[in-house]
């Protein structure tokens, strides 16, 4: 309470040009505000992320560790069951991201167009985003039952014999990816909708006056001007797709065989089996994969933003 | 876009039916199956239950394995409330300073924050950290991990919002004699209400639905969380689909309520968060 007056005069002095700033004046934005949050973030996120690089070079049981160099990585890429996880991760991320981009854009155009009931449709499409992924996975596991499942029963009605979905090695990964799209497309849609709704209406009017049809208006007005939203959807869904674990684990546990194993499930399986070093090496590979794919996207986007 | 054009009724009807089929049937399936008897549910059909066993199923699920579901609900609630409450305060404090002090220091820190959104968490090393600090397999340990994972997202959202809070306010409060703590908690923090509501709702849903973190960092039945119980349930009751779907229904109810009350904040928060990231 006694420091009141000096502090007040000090900040008033601040506004005078060239006013002497007492050296001891405390900033109203002290750095220690960063400490509690930063400490938790550092200890439980940054430290493990950095230590992962070291632990991935060891044979490790949590209690003692033995430095073995790159052996874990060699083993990872030699064993087809593990290395295929890397490939599956890329396929899964590309498929889910691609479908979310295209379908999200289509739904957003639909829902910002001249249509009734858009509030209802937006809510309905968005709700799965908030539902427990495990619940969604278990539900679709039942819906996708090869013979009794609702999906194949419905396909039978219109004369299509549906695939065996999760039980078919060729379809398992794709089936999970489709469920992922079902759950996540609502988020892509609302991001696109926000992007489209921020485009000034005059642009569409002007294009119309100039004789541009709906397709041209979409191609030359909506698409370029909604690009920031599109980039967000791509980056977000790629990162999410590469890190996906719960949906895959709930639906297939990586099976049949290893046909739907992705990096995150490989990491968990190796952890369960007690190969902590190998599991951490998988984590590092996933980390590098995310960086290699996402960083160039960030850069190219920032550059095209600057030149515009 | 163009509000003056007449709505296209055919397209509207078609779209509404399509959305209902694609997005609502799975939920209708959950509710209907949860109300069936065990033999009927095993047919996996999308049909009206011939006899309603909703209440019996509800009781059976709740009582299963010594009321494990109740314990899981309590645990998940503690986890969600504690981690969200702490992360909101700490992230707001950090975002305030990061937003107000622009310099080489803080822009470096911003990059670190951004990394928190991109980097997949290193799970086994996190277990190692938890073990070193004696927090492995404890609720406080899991709460701290959830806070750490949520920190980056929350700081970014807060920063964007604080940018719209005028600096003059800080100066006025400082002139009136407020110290940094008073300035932040008495003046700035109350102004952040809209974004706080958004973050609380979105983060609560995230933490409630989180499966991987409890799986790694808080294994064991006595510490069960709802998602883990749900996952283990399918292994234990292989053919009791009515009970499995009752469980799914119960676990889905809290986010549903959140969604119905806070739809606008959730949607805007997720859009803002993703556009930032």
Q: What are the key terms here?
A:
heterodimer; A: 308 residues; mainly alpha; 14 helices; 70% helix; 2% strand; disordered N terminus; B: mainly alpha; MetI-like fold; Raffinose/stachyose/melibiose transport system permease protein (chain B); transmembrane (chain B); MetI-like_sf (chain B)
Please mark out the parts of chain B with pLDDT under 50 across 5 or more consecutive residues, or reply none.
none
Question: How big is the Rg of chain A?
Answer: 26 Å
How would a crystallographer describe the biggest sheet of chain A?
2 strands, antiparallel
Number of helices of chain A: 14
Estimate what percentage of residues of chain B fall within beta strands.
under 5%
Identify the CATH class of one domain in chain B: Mainly Alpha
The total count of helices of chain B amounts to 12
The percent range for helix content of chain B is: over 70%
In the CATH hierarchy, the third-tier topology of one domain in chain B is known as: MetI-like fold
Oligomeric category:
heterodimer
Subcellular location (chain A): Cell membrane
Membrane topology (chain A): Multi-pass membrane protein
Family (chain A): Belongs to the binding-protein-dependent transport system permease family.
Keywords (chain A): Cell membrane, Membrane, Transmembrane, Transmembrane helix, Transport
